[in-house]
Amino acid sequence: MIGFLRTVAMLILTFGYSAATLVAGFFGGVPAAARVMRRWGRAFVRVGGWTVSTQGAENLPGEGAILVSNHQSLLDIPLLVAAFDREVKFLAKAELGRIPVFGRAMRAAGNLFVDREDPRDAVRVIREAGGAMRRGEMIVVFPEGTRSANGSIGEFKPGAFFIARKTGAPLVPVYVGGSAAALPKGTLVARPAVLVARVLPPMEASGAVPLSLEDIAAEARRRIVAAREEEARRAPAPL
How many domains does the chain have? Predict the structure, then answer.
């Protein structure tokens, strides 16, 4: 029952903050809307009764960067918004941007959306991502392309790594944990969990002898899987 009530509160909170983001964006532009969206992420996590353990924040570059993360739950977006002292933006599928009110709020806050059915849209996204990198922004990409149905980490698609190579931005793997247990795919009922955002050392997306995009994607996934296994070893044994 408590989980259901928390879920209702989070939905109301999301609608209210989405409306506030649109108002802020109308009067103050993207920076104002992004500040409201950041408050939403922190409030969402707090209302859900969760805590976020942020690890390895010192690995975040002081400049613009592409963060590549595994994707477990709808909770991953507010989790990552709440995890860092800096604002993060997201590159998401176009369908998310079509969600009434919330999708418009995400756009107003400067998040990017790509139509995966239209190859020409990638040109626009690369151009916009390049502008974000020059402004020193961090963009989160979920290279699995969708949320995991069972908490496993799927194969990484090379698109995110192409953006990092074209923009010259640092590529930073981020392991997200706990969200699959807190808000599993297929349900909106909040459950108790400790959320983890672990930032791993940056990778080279380009170099004197650049790897293929597939090799970079595989290496990023390997590092995130290793972080997950290490986190599992740290977890206390059940009583």
Answer: 1
pLDDT single digits (tens) 144-178:
988 877 778 999 988 778 888 888 889 999 999 99
> Looking at the domain assignment, is residue 64 inside a domain?
yes
Q: Is the pLDDT of residue 115 over 60?
A: yes
Is 14 contained in some domain?
Answer: yes
Record the pTM. Answer: 0.91
Q: What is the pLDDT of residues 102-111, one digit of tens each?
A: 999 999 999 9
Instruction: Report how many helices (DSSP H) and strands (DSSP E) the chain contains, helices first.
Output: 8, 7
Backbone φ and ψ of 214, nearest 5°:
-65, -40
Of residues 223 and 120, more confidence is placed in: 223
87 pLDDT above the threshold of 60: yes
Instruction: Give me the CATH number covering residue 122.
Output: 3.40.1130
**Structural domain harbouring 159:** 2-234
State the Cα–Cα distance between residues 54 and 83, nearest whole angstrom.
6
Choose among 156, 182, 193, 149: nearest CA to 75: 182
Euclidean distance between CA atoms 87 and 21, whole angstroms:
14
Specify if 131 maps to a domain. Answer: yes
How far is Cα 165 from Cα 213, in angstroms, rounded to an integer? 9
Beta strand ranges found along 104-234 (DSSP E)? 112-114, 138-141, 171-177, 194-199
**DSSP 8-class letter at 85:** S
* 239 belongs to a structural domain: no
- Token pair for residue 104? 């418009």
